Amino acid sequence: MIRVEVRSYGEVLESSRADPDFDPVLSGVDRTAYPILGHLDPYGDTYLNSMQVTTLKGEIARAGDRLVPARFAGDLLALCELCLADSHRFMRFIGD
Hints:
30% helix, globular
């Protein structure tokens, strides 16, 4: 299961666990249509800067429940907003 953190200067500001049904690899995410979602590594760590987080927000809105379960999409969008609320923040997706 993927865990998501918003970090700033090494400090975890907020975190959430992904919905168990969220697995971009097994879902067959089209990496051309969803370049951020399609490159999230469920078995390793993925870091996103603010520009990538902005792209991720749009992808979540377009993806619908098939790629991002609704119960997780809300949490993920809230983390995106927190990340974008100030400079020197990034999102970290931690795979297991």
